[in-house]
Write a structure and sequence with these properties.
With 474 residues, the chain is mainly α. It contains 19 helices and eight strands. The longest helix is centred in the middle third of the chain and has 29 residues.
């Protein structure tokens, strides 16, 4: 084991790696609660989403550890799951079956894997300026924070100002605040598993305020109802064949762009801390890392867990001294155990129905009407997720750290980075924000005749984004 994971070379030990893997899991455990809650809003069976989330993360964490030997953990991505739920499955209010949505993830994952095998993804990653890579991570952090503020009722849509302060007379808002502030205190006091403990405090507040109730059973057998979703039959045909619709083909392209670039900021940020990023910003073993990350997206669609991607919370294990793939393997084993606790996870991560409030619709829904088995049509009801909302806000704040490393004194770099960061949350689409940054960067450099500063692939990617914007407006 020592030789396989290169303990001596990376100056670590078995004890350190075990503790680091546990630390990473504790900071990521909220995914088990949050991801099924988000996916269930689109009609995905909650228990099935729990199993898919847990086992998908377990499998891909183990793959990263054994293949790339880096302390990078993977789980269902918080940004992409929202895009899938509210932009793809709710594409133009068409109420696309969730199995078809998972097919979109499965196909784009296979396409990205192909790009890795051919070396194209690594080439594009190497061609992108470091400041833009960092800006992507910051923008995703703002996006996750926006989701948390909305799902916790801290903000609400408004007709003129777009958003306004939420209704603090509602008990679920105070559940959100309990989770948020307790997590902040735990983090300030450097308590291990601070985010998970904050979620548990919020769950306790939800009990006291009558927002949730104790489940009849704490244990449950894994539910595999979401597995092989692309090959399930819906509306008389295989789900994967229904992706051929023009709108969904564009969704494949848009999410592929998102998945293509989401990993960059995370790998660079964690890699710098772990010591496997070179001074020029290049990442050692990047092809193996991208290979696992790309395969994870396809596995997420196949399992019904949304796209699985590398997590910035891996930095928690690195901070504990984790330097090898054993850290990721330990994290994966702990995720696997969670597949047997679906009732508890549903109690914490499930939505809370808010009755007869037609004046308020979830900002995250963007006008999308959920399936009838989630919210009956015409009821005027909606769901909030207060127990995990505080965790999302905190996680978003953690991703802001790399903003200090952006070269704000260089206008050519600063403006594209800013548009990337602000574009992601305001368009509610990660790839759109990335597109804003890429197009602006290329345009500014061309206007200043700095053609030699633009990598040839940047022209190609910027053009692809521009075409996607034109197509999406039709």
């Amino acid at each position: 084991m020592k030789e396989f994971f290169k303990f001596e070379e990376r100056q670590t030990s078995l004890k350190t790696e075990l503790l680091s893997g546990t630390a990473t899991f504790l900071t990521m455990a909220y995914v088990i609660f949050v991801n099924p809650g988000i996916l269930s809003a689109a009609g995905v069976p909650f228990a099935g989403a729990v199993t898919a989330t847990a086992l998908g993360a377990a499998l891909m964490c183990a793959a990263m550890g054994l293949i790339a030997n880096r302390p990078l953990a993977l789980a269902s991505g918080m940004g992409i799951n929202a895009v899938l739920t509210f932009s793809v499955i709710g594409f133009r209010q068409a109420n696309v079956p969730w199995q078809v949505g998972m097919s979109v993830i499965f196909i784009e994952g296979l396409l990205i894997l192909l790009l890795v095998v051919t070396g194209f993804r690594q080439a594009v990653m190497d061609s992108i300026p470091l400041n833009l890579k960092r800006a992507i991570g910051v923008g995703i952090g703002l996006f996750i924070t926006l989701i948390g503020l909305n799902e916790g009722g801290i903000i609400r849509p408004a007709p003129v100002t777009l958003v306004a302060l939420g209704d603090f007379s509602q008990s679920y808002v105070w559940v959100t605040l309990a989770g948020f502030f307790s997590t902040a205190v735990f983090m300030g006091r450097k308590v291990k598993g601070d985010i998970l403990w904050g979620i548990l405090v919020a769950a306790g507040a939800a009990f006291l305020l009558g927002v949730t109730a104790v489940p009849a059973s704490f244990f449950g057998a894994p539910d595999f109802s979401t597995f092989l979703a692309p090959f399930q039959t819906v509306n008389g045909s295989l789900a994967i064949t229904q992706v051929l619709a023009p709108g969904l083909l564009f969704a494949v392209f848009a999410i592929m762009l998102t998945d293509f670039f989401d990993t960059m900021g995370t790998v660079v940020a964690v890699g710098e801390q772990a010591g496997f990023v070179n001074k020029d910003g290049s990442v050692r073993d990047i092809k193996k890392i991208l290979m696992v990350d790309s395969a994870a997206a396809a596995v997420g669609g196949l399992f019904g867990a949304s796209s699985i991607t590398t997590y910035v919370e891996s930095a928690a294990g690195v901070a504990e001294g984790g330097r090898t793939g054993l850290t990721a393997v330990v994290t994966g084993l702990l995720f696997a155990l969670c597949a047997f606790f679906a009732p508890v996870i549903q109690m914490i991560g499930g939505g809370h129905r808010v009755l007869n409030s037609a004046h308020y619709t979830l900002l995250v829904n963007g006008g999308f009407t959920p399936p009838a088995d989630v919210i009956p049509p015409g009821s005027g009801d909606y769901f909030v997720y207060p127990i995990t909302a505080g965790a999302l806000i905190i996680v978003g704040s953690l991703m802001m750290r790399i903003v200090r490393d952006i070269d704000w004194d260089n206008f050519d770099e600063a403006l594209p980075a800013f548009l990337t960061m602000i574009g992601i949350p305001l368009t509610y689409n990660i790839s759109y924000g990335i597109g804003f940054g890429f197009i602006t960067y290329t345009a500014i450099k061309m206007a200043k005749r700095k053609f030699g500063r633009i990598h040839p692939l940047m022209y190609l990617v910027s053009l692809a984004f521009l075409l996607s914007f034109v197509m999406s407006s039709r």
